[in-house]
Design goal:
Length: 269
Amino acid sequence: MTYFSPWTAHEASALISVPTVGDDKYSRGVLGVLTGSDQYPGAAVLSVEAALHTGVGMLRYLGPERAASLVLQRRPEAVTSPGRVQAWLLGSGMDPVDRDTEPMLTALAEGLPTVLDGGALDLHEHASGPVVLTPHYRELARVLDVEVDAVASAPLEWARRASEQLNVTVLLKGHTTHVAGPGISIGVSSAPTWLATAGAGDALGGILGALVATHTDLIAADDTALARLAATAALLHGLAAERASGGGPFTILDLCAALPATIASIIAA
């Protein structure tokens, strides 16, 4: 097992895709997003906001009608018609009990790199492409059918177990984020304690979705790429939160707004 602890801006900088003069909106990466629900429509807004601030050429939002309306009010550049995508973000802000499963199964059948969050975590077995799960302790305990206290007491061990047992990459959320994938485990601790707030996971999913959509060739060539991208997403999430906080409370939209400057600082360094 290879260890990267802590994951730093130096490692992350190599996994941020900077457009060139020859790029267009398609070559820069197209992310498909199925997040939010009638109960939690704000999750859709936050995941889209975070993804766009991280950098993709296009984002297709294909979630529920009410959430789509809110997404377009906030981000009119989001596309709400189906079409070709290079990666998927599924499940943030959904309840697995009353979700619309069929569109997510259709997406998973495409064989594209996919981020599974929230209400889509249990769909990993339907994926025909590489998958990264982004659970918190309770969600991972539910997926593995173990006690929450067991996961909380040994998060790195359980992230590894889940990765091996489910044949996926796992980003286990917490103040220290633990990432495990084939032959690799990474620890990321960059977030202020103020980040323990509703919507933080939705933004993290959007950041990771954008990174995955802009690195599909790397993911196809390197089994450890998803884990390294997940660690980079966690680092960006934490550093943007720190920038937004300035030592005090902040909102998740503040975090999203801080992402471009956070990314620029990592690239410059």
